[in-house]
Each structure stands twice: as C-alpha cells, then as structure tokens.
Amino acid sequence: MNQRRKPGIASRAIHAGEPRERYADSLTTPIFQTSTYVFKDSRDIEEYTKGNKPRFEYGRYGNPTELIAERRLADLEGAEDSLVFSSGMMAITTTILSLVNTGDHIVITDDSYKKTLEFCNTYLQRFGVECTVVPFGDYEALEKAIKKNTRFIFSESPTNPYLNVFDLVLLKKIADKYGVMTLIDSTIATPINQRPLEFGIDLVTHSCTKYLSGHNDILAGVVLGKSEHIGPIRSLHKSMGGLIDPHCCYLLLRGLKTFPMRVQRMNETALEVARFLESHPAVERVYYPFLESHQHYSIAREQMTGGGCVVTFIMKGDLEDAKRFMDSLEMIFIGPSFGGPETLITHPATVSYYDYTRERRYELGIIDTLFRLAVGLEDVEDIIDDLERAFDKASRK
Ligand SMILES: *Cc1c(COP(=O)(O)O)cnc(C)c1O
Description:
The protein is of the alpha/beta class. The chain is built from 15 helices and twelve strands. The chain folds into two domains: about 250 residues, Aspartate Aminotransferase, domain 2; about 140 residues, Aspartate Aminotransferase, domain 1. Strands 1-7-6-5-4-2-3 form a seven-stranded mixed beta sheet, with helices on both faces.
C-alpha cells in the first residue's frame, strides 16, 4: 500500500483546520461578523443543551473564524488543542491565572518578557501567589527554586534582546523530577524554528502579533497544548473575555498562509545581516543564536532549525554615536515588534528602559549602544546598505 505522506508545513499553513466543503463556496475563510447565534426552535435548544449538537451560541464563547484559526495553529505547532486571544499578553495572563491558586508558587526566568514578569511579580503576588525569578540559564538556581507548592516553570526562549536559548531537554528533566508543569513563550522561535511540545513542554504561548500574523497590522495571541490543559484555560477565557475579533482573526488566518515562507526567508536574511554586522568595524558584538559566536549556539543548533529575524548588536562608541546611527537610517524604521515585512530597529536604552537609571540598565545588560534589529522581508542588500550608510554617517562627527 502506498502510505500517504503528511502534508508539509507550507501546505498545512494554507489548508489545515478548514473543511474542504466551503461555506457558500467561498475559497477564503468567511468572517462571521456576529456577536450572537440563533436557535431554530425549542428542539434546537434541547439538542444543544444535551450536548448532541456542537454549535455556537454567543460571541464570547467562540466564533467559527476563530475555531479555524485555532485548528490551524494547533496543526502547525503539533498540539492537540489551542486557544486564540486578543493579544499575546491576554494568552499569557489568562493561561497563568487558570493554573494558580492562592498559596501556590511559580518560577520564572529573569529574561522573560517585561510585562509577563510584571504580571507575575506584581499582580499575582497580590493574590498570594509567590513568584521566584531565577537567572536565565542557571539551571542549578532553577532547580533550587522549586518548592512543594511550585505549580509551574515559565520561560521565554529564545529571549529578548540577547536571544538566549533555553535547553528544553534539561528543563523537561528538571520539571519531571519534581512534577511541575512547564510553560514556554515561544514567540521569538515560531513553530517553524522550534517546537517545545515535542520536547515534552506542557504549554506553549505565542504572540501572534509577531510572525504568525506577520504584517504588523493586528494583535493576537495563542496558547497550545494538550486538551486536558487547554480546557480549564478555555473555561476562564469565557469569563475573562479576551476574545479576538472575527475580522482580526481573518487577518491572522491570511497571514498564516505565508508564514512558513516568511520565516524561512527571514532566517536566511537575518543570518546574512548578522554575519555582516559581525564583520563591521563599527560593531562591538552581535547576538544571534545561529552565529558560532553565540553562547548558546550548540543548543540552538540541536533544538532549533532556524535563528529567526531578531538580530541584536552592540555598537562601538557612546550614546551620542548610537543616536546618530539611528537618526541616519533611511529605510529601516525605528519601532518595536518583529516578524513583519518592514525591518525595524529598537534602541532599548532610550525606549523600553528610558525610565531606568543608567546603573540599573547596565545591570540588566541594556547598555547605551545596544540595538535590536527585527529583520523584515526586504532585499538583504538594501537592509545591509542602509545599516552601512548609517554606520558611516555616525562615525563622521
Ligand atoms: C510581543 C510579545 C509578547 C506580548 O504579545 P502582545 O501580542 O503584544 O500582547 C509576549 N512575549 C513575547 C516574547 C513577545 O515578543
């Protein structure tokens, strides 16, 4: 018998999760722009309440466009189930809230997304959930931090801005030893470059605002994992109400169709840009997980299949040089986020950490000439030309 091959990721990003028979013969996914769903009659209600007929009832409990996005994302990540949200933070906070009770303890790595850390450290503590922040990459400290009441370990990987890579094999080993759950914010990795569920990680979150929707035009988030884990999150989600708007969800589905080729292209462009930066005399250091010089290069090579679009570098010189460089860019825009078509650059010292003292910033590794480049889909030559011109101008005081 001829064994049928499972379709590749490029095909699944276009077709997975959607019935072959199309609503009103429409090729593209309809946007069900409705807040409510009607019953035909009392029999119809009965069939629904008895659980004989799965259907939609009210917008906050789910929407058909959203269901297709959830099935497609679950397919891409290799998950049993998934849940889409109005933003990445909504996915993270709803997931965490569904897991903890007063008196619980959680462990999070210090290199995680700033707002996730703030949520765990400030807001959760208010409800009597204790949080230990451990240095990223210190597996001994991580193991020591685990207590009897530890509910889960949360980390981002790779991290922002230094692109540190978590050893997921080691994380799983430590978590299993103590019977704690594991959560990974895999936004920077994408389901193309790393699939934490295959390492036994329990739950994976993504900000779909980044690569998955991929056009810098919407906010969305997702959590993925086993049905037994997603179930309670779905239940809380219905109360929290952080639903994605159906139109926004359509844009996510549209973006997903080109997601694999966009990431592939970004992997290639970013590696080339990283190599260019590494060889440029105006650059002190480059951080990119697929550069041999990165401290986690070997883990990245073993556990990831591509380095992604984020390239971080430190320029030579001082804050004024950094500003001159930034001000000289012509094509590259200054702005946060990554994973979209436009190459963007951020200067953490004057944006995300503007309210920190220089001393505190330096403790966190946010030095004056640090830049995070989010490589887009432009021609690699144009990205490199723009950087080169700006370095040139910055050196002419
Ligand atoms: C952007 C981002 C988030 C937050 O996602 P939003 O969609 O902006 O809410 C969380 N984690 C990481 C790693 C991110 O890059």
